[in-house]
User: Fold this.
Amino acid sequence: MRRRNSEYIIESCIRLSGLLVIIFVFLIFLFLLNDSLALFRQYHLVDFLAGRKWLPISEPPRFGIVPLLLGSIYVTAGAIVICVPLGVGAAMFIAEIAPKFLKHVLKSLVEILASIPSVVLGFIGIVWLGPFLRNTLGLDTGMCGLTGSLLLAFMALPTIISISEDALVGVPRAYREAAFGLGATQWQTLWRIILPAASPGIIAAVMLGIGRVIGETMVVMMVTGNAPVVPYSILQPMRTLTATIAGEMGETVGGSDHYFALFAVGLILFIITFIINFIADVCLRKARK
Amino acid sequence: MIAARTRQTIAFSLLALATTLIVVPIVLTIFYVVANGAGAVSWQFITQSPRNGMREGGIMPAIVGTILLVFGTMLFSLPLGVLSAIYLVEYARDNFFTRLVKLSVVNLSGIPSIVYGLFGFTLFVVLLRFGTSILAGSLTLAIMSLPVIITATKEALEAVPASFREISLSLGATKWQTVRYCVLPYAIPGILTGTVLSLSRAAGETAPILFTVAAFYLPRLPRSVFDQVMALPYHLYVISTQVPNMPAQISFATGFVLIALVFLMNLVSIILRAHYRKKKLW
Assistant:
């Protein structure tokens, strides 16, 4: 009888844990929504979404997220342009061309990159990459969107490489054998048969990479110059959604409009990453079939 | 028209070039931090408190703080993550609730770390009145680590052959007995590997601890779980952006210690994986 009881307790705990995971997501969304709504009672939603000025401590304050959103978009687009071709190329190299020994070395290196804390990369951006870009490109300041893009591209590579590689390796052998049987070279097979067959997985890899880049905080806060103005070029200082929350939260008074505005920025981030991850998940499931 | 062979050579060279463009910066980054930081790391540096506005002395409180946070994170996320994964693999039926749990795991893994910081601040610091404390920070990091632990545990459980379960059940064991004695022991290596990896990531995170636990400057050790602590990643952020006239050597050394700590944890997970793989029985 005692055995039955303890079993009942543990099985309840197991079910409760599953439930808790749902509760956490729900609570995160609820808290963000609740505090955002507190802002929108004072401040018009349209002014928030379409406002071109983020001046939280001026009188009256302006909470337009267009400059922050554009900051995030510039930095993310720059990072993606750099890391997708490199990452998918490296995944193709690792999956198809590299001999076994080299494959192990490369995969370990990618794992090492994945484990470097973002704050360390931000630090390197401050002491080396920023000054280096300023001198080479003759910029006014090295703390600009491009520095952030380069470091974020670097950070997103492990995600893109490992998921793309899984997708490439997962293509059935028969496809390859059929292509070789028809006289295709290894490259023709890779480019025309394997890559298209692996494309859902590769799209998922790119989506997850984008999600990673948009959500990254410390690197962009340290190296993109933190200027909340509408940027016109990636070579200007700018500020992202994430860096705004991290940089201003400590200075706000709990319950002020500014405080609620930062939660509204958090809500926007939550929604963006939710959509991106949802698409990635759909692609991944398609890839498994 | 270029011959197919030539085209292949060109294409493969480009792929090799892309790989090189990734490998070289990785090696240089590590080398750069080690070359500049290792020299400044001494016994005093890792055992003393910072002095003179953090420009002198060591980083002991930050190291201790990070280690405490990692343990706190593990305490909450390991049981919760493993139990959730057991639910998904062993107990879940294909219904709406299960699909919702799976979607939540996917969603949790994509939420930006700074949003976890906001959430942890609202729930643990303000609502539950833990204040900025080790408890609030560990809980925030634990929720952030959950999806990685759940995914790793799920994969480990799914890798255990179905016949193990069938034999156990056919001998009259209950569902839980089967999971406890015939499935879980064989999934332990995968669970440990995933846990250590997720903890190494938690150790390096800065954004979630900004408003939940991290102290700017606190040159003493915490007395209870309701105390603030310094943490290595936050300390590196502070000294490289907020402190004027900071000797670069100390920043590099702090970065080196942080990377060394994270690599050490990764190494543990690799050794665990290799050790158990040798003992694998099926």
